[in-house]
């Protein structure tokens, strides 16, 4: 499959890594579907992408933690463009909490739903469609938390570990024509980073061998590689973009 004029769906697409991915795909000539909970933000970015790059783009409101929303997103993309060539499961959340016993059932279920359940449903739906159409690529955006779980984000870490397993399962289910891979970022400078405390920044600098946080574009570079022709023999893989953090403890 070539790298031009594909239909690319990005969840969590209106902010952070997702937004940077949408911009990169549009700049490369792809048709981009921006999906997130905030429909207005998605539509605004889609209009911006079309205006800047001249490529078709569509904004769709979708709460990926809800099965029905995932199905509706797939149907909207099919009705509009007739196919899905690339899916980037990027939507995620990690709310703050106190002690582990203070984690409520509601918080736990919400984190698992947004980070894992939605990726499962969208991966299964889009993987099946891609296989029937003769090919496609799925990238799941995980986190080093999956392999270096911190007590302060344990439900998130559990969900991301599940996402890593999902990658392998989907890769085997929809082989040989559909490739499914994981990008596993470490701390990345996005809009969320504006809320990082000085203590957290110092801790990151100490934990990451690269001595800094990553940039969204560095993660997007890995996503672009995995969805492009140079990664034609890569499936079921996990690529760390973490400055060496996962091996530093």
Write the SSE topology.
Elements (H helix, E strand, L loop, with lengths): L6 E5 L4 H12 L3 E6 L2 H15 L3 E5 L5 H15 L4 E4 L15 H29 L2 E6 L12 H20 L4 E8 L2 E2 L8 H10 L6 E2 H12 L10 E4 L8
Parallel strand pairs: 1-2, 1-4, 2-3, 4-5, 5-6, 6-9, 7-8
Helix pairs in contact: 1-2, 1-7, 3-4, 4-5
EC number: 1.1.1.47
InterPro entries: KR_dom, NAD(P)-bd_dom_sf, SDR_fam
Pfam family, one: adh_short_C2
Describe this structure in words.
The chain is α/β, with parallel strands linked by helices. The protein has 7 helices and 9 strands, in the order E-H-E-H-E-H-E-H-E-H-E-E-H-E-H-E. It has helices spanning 16-27, 39-53, 67-81, 105-133, 154-173, 198-207, 216-227, and strands at 7-11, 31-36, 57-61, 86-89, 136-141, 178-185, 188-189, 214-215, 238-241. Helix 6 links the parallel strand 7 (188-189) and strand 8. Helix 1 (16-27) packs parallel to helix 2 (39-53) and helix 4 packs parallel to helix 5. The protein is globular, with a radius of gyration of 17 Å. The mean pLDDT is 92.
Tags for this entry?
KR_dom, alpha/beta, 9 strands, 249 residues, two-stranded parallel sheet, single chain, Rossmann fold
CATH topology: Rossmann fold
Please report the distance between the alpha carbons of the first and last residues.
39 Å
Order of helices and strands: EHEHEHEHEHEEHEHE
Question: What would you call the structural class?
Answer: alpha/beta
Please tell me the total number of domains. Answer: 1
Q: Total helix count?
A: 7
* Global geometry: globular
CATH architecture: 3-Layer(aba) Sandwich
Number of strands: 9
CATH class: Alpha Beta
Approximate helicity band: 40-55%
Fourth CATH level, the homologous superfamily = NAD(P)-binding Rossmann-like Domain
Kindly report the average pLDDT value: 92
Low-confidence blocks of residues = none
Domain Ketoreductase: 6-191
Protein name: Glucose 1-dehydrogenase
Family: Belongs to the short-chain dehydrogenases/reductases (SDR) family.
Enzyme class: oxidoreductase
């Amino acid at each position: 499959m070539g790298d031009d004029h594909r239909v690319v769906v990005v969840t969590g697409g209106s902010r952070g890594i997702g937004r940077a991915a949408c911009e990169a795909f549009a700049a490369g000539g792809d048709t981009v579907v921006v999906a997130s909970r905030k429909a207005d933000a998605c539509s605004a970015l889609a209009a911006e992408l079309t205006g800047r790059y001249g490529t078709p783009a569509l904004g769709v409101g979708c709460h990926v933690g809800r099965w029905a929303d995932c199905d509706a997103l797939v149907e909207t993309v099919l009705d509009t463009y007739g196919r899905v060539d690339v899916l980037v499961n990027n939507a995620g959340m990690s709310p703050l909490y106190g002690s582990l016993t203070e984690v409520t059932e509601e918080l736990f279920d919400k984190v698992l739903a947004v980070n894992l359940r939605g990726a499962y449903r969208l991966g299964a739906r889009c993987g099946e469609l891609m296989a029937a159409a003769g090919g496609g690529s799925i990238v799941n955006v995980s986190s080093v938390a999956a392999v270096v779980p911190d007590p302060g984000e344990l439900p998130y870490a559990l969900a991301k570990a599940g996402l890593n397993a999902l990658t392998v399962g989907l890769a085997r289910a929809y082989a040989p024509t559909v490739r499914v891979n994981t990008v596993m970022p470490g701390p990345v400078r996005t809009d969320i980073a504006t809320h990082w405390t000085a203590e957290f920044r110092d801790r990151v600098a100490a934990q990451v061998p690269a001595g800094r946080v990553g940039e969204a574009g560095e993660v997007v570079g890995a996503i672009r590689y995995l969805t492009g022709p140079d990664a034609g023999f890569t499936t079921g893989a996990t690529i760390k973009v973490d400055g060496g953090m996962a091996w530093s403890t």
